[in-house]
Amino acid sequence: MASKLMRGTFVLTLGTYISRILGMLFVIPFVALVGDSASGLYQIGYTQYTIFLSIATAGFPMAVSKFVSKYNSLGDYETSRKMFRAGIGVMLLTGFLSFIVLYLLAPILAASALGTEKLASGITIEDTVFVIRMVSIGLIVVPIMSLIRGFFQGHQSMGPTAVSQVIEQIVRIVFLLVSVYAILKIFHGSKVTAVGYATFGAFVGAIGGLIVLWMYWMKRRHTLEAMKENEVPPSEISMKKLFKELFSYALPFVFVGLAIPLSQAVDTYTMIPAMNASGYGEFADSILSFVLFQGRQIIMIPVSLATAFGLTLVPTITKYYTNREFRQLHLQISQSFQTIMFLVLPAIGGMMVLAGPIYKAFYGGSAQAALLLQWQAPLAILFSFFTVNAAILQGINKQKLAVISLAFGLIIKACINYPLSYFLHGQGSIIATAVSFLASILYSFVMIKRHAKFSFKVLMKRTMFILLLTVFMALALSVLQSVLGIFINYKASRAAASIVLLISVAGGAAVYLYLAYKSHLLERLMGSRLTFLKRKKVGRA
After folding, report:
1. DSSP helix/strand/coil, 118
2. For 124, phi and psi rounded to 5 degrees?
3. I need a surface site. Which of 300, 349, 360, 535 has the fewest CB within 10 A?
4. What is the pLDDT of residue 1?
């Protein structure tokens, strides 16, 4: 089962990484076409959409994943099928209602986000209303797609989710770039119109993802566990009680899924007013664009691992917890925590050292933007642990604690974001986010220790050792970048920055993996898999 979890996580991680990388790469031509201010407008619209999407799905996809895993493990496949059919109907209804509400509330949300009739960059409330209404159309389709993904995940079948994510992203990006280019360069339309059609790409991409899922469904529907004949008498629980059970799973997923979007919403509604009040209003939309859009795209790449773990952990931990297999439960938790540390910490170190070449290569940016990326990079580990901790708490039926953890952090964020943004601007917003997520994580660690009886001793030791390896890697990376700087000035062009970045990343990864291998850390993390590879190598020799 451990290998199945890792295999599922690998498949989802690969799909999510490809989606994230595509999502980061499209920013390069998009920002070049529309500029920083218009990309900030894009992010304002998308923040509202993400919040309403979480409300529209109501946590149903992950809840259905947990529900299907539970009833499949009991051999009650008919109950799984019944809930899946009912869930489709609910997603149709909530998606359409969320679309209507967001469309109608767009003027109020736009006025709250801007805090003024017109920004220094020229963006108005009417412009923002148009963008929000264009992106709202995606709410009609995306919830259904998400629920079908949850059904496959409940069978620990991660391929459909991974492939549909990638296709959805490709279709969205192709539509986005083609429409923006056509509007600006061919029809000579406004940047606001271009951004509006860019956000409409969410709907077009979702259609592409939905088609992929339909193809998987037609291919696998006769082999899925939930489509089998029951091994036990079907549950006689009424539909009302089934929905009550499902909502007990779903509502916490709503709040946890809203964690990052709500944190972004706090930034959206407080950063611009705070910077206006402090006399830095002319830079507000550009800094907001970096903090919530450009920089966030970069740091979310390592966070993709945690997202994949979160999706695969819930059904797996639910199964172990339902069957009272606590030894396996602890092994899964430990393996997840250590793998995240092993992969995300060096990524953070690399982003902090290479912030200049990274931002120059992707956005052609400035020293100020690179500094903000260095500040923002450590958020990756906080986002990662928040996601995985929430999945663990939900897997052991402690959903309310995951919600409390989120609420605790958001209250802190809401209280300190305005004053920190007023005095420290972009850095202040990042600090507020870090403090809020750190508070949530510490609370959830305590709850996992108490309710899952999990010991953090091994994790603490491994973390210190991984941190030491990361420091050595960062030093080597810094030296390598300095040596490359003698021959290549990354500030000269994006091409030069890309060359420095590729060589540095390859060198840093080689140093880190070599140190991990020689110190036997890889062997401790991978266990029998690495031992098998060693034996195979010796056998060939």
Report:
1. strand
2. -115, 170
3. 535
4. 46
Amino acid at position 536, single letter: K
Cα–Cα dist 89/97, whole Å: 13
The residue among 146, 390, 142 whose CA lies nearest residue 255 is: 390
Around 42, how many Cα atoms within 13 Å sit in the side-chain half-sphere?
28
CA–CA separation, 64 and 468 (whole Å) = 41
For 353-373, write each residue's pLDDT tens digit. Answer: 999 998 888 877 667 788 888
Q: What separation in angstroms does the CA of 429 have from each of 149, 151, 170, 261, 422?
A: 34, 37, 31, 14, 9
The 3-state DSSP class for residue 364 equals coil
Within its chain, how far is the Cα of 97 from the centroid?
25
Q: What is the pLDDT of residue 469?
A: 96
CA distance 119 to 42: 15
Q: Find residue 124's DSSP bridge partners.
A: 118
Please count the residues of the chain: 541
Q: Which own/partner pairs from 459-462 qualify as long-range (CB within 8 Å, at least 24 positions apart)?
A: 459/334, 459/337, 459/338, 459/341, 462/338, 462/341, 462/342, 462/521, 462/524
List helix spans (H) across 354-425: 355-363, 367-376, 379-395, 399-424
Assigned token pair, 526: 């991978």
> Which of 1-10, 78-87, 89-98 is the most confident on average?
89-98
DSSP states along 57-68: HTTHHHHHHHHH
Q: What amino acid is encoded at 404 in this protein?
A: I
Q: How far apart are CA 47 and CA 292, in angstroms?
A: 9
The predicted model gives 450-460 an average pLDDT of 89
| Element holding 439 (H helix, E strand) | helix 426-451
Q: Measured between alpha carbons, how far is residue 426 from residues 260, 335, 375, 442 in Å? A: 17, 35, 9, 25
**pLDDT per residue over 12-58, tens digit each?**
667 777 887 787 778 778 888 988 778 878 988 888 898 888 777 76
Residues 478-494 pLDDT 10s: 999 999 999 999 888 88
Asked if residue 207 has pLDDT above 90, the reply is yes
Query: What is the residue-wise DSSP string for 13-43?
Result: HHHHHHHHHHHHHTHHHHHHHHHHHHHHHHH
Contact 75, 116 (CB under 8 A): no
- C-alpha neighbours within 13 Å on the C-beta side of residue 194: 23
Model pLDDT, residue 54:
78
Q: Are 72 and 154 in contact (CB under 8 A)?
A: yes
Contact 178, 170 (CB under 8 A): no
Predicted confidence at residue 68, as pLDDT, reads 78
- What pLDDT, on the 0 to 100 scale, is given for residue 532? 45
3-state secondary structure of 124: strand
Do residues 442 and 385 touch, judged by C-beta distance below 8 A?
no
Amino acid at 174: V
Hey, what amino acid is at 515? L
Nearest alpha-carbon partner for 314 in 67, 28, 121: 67
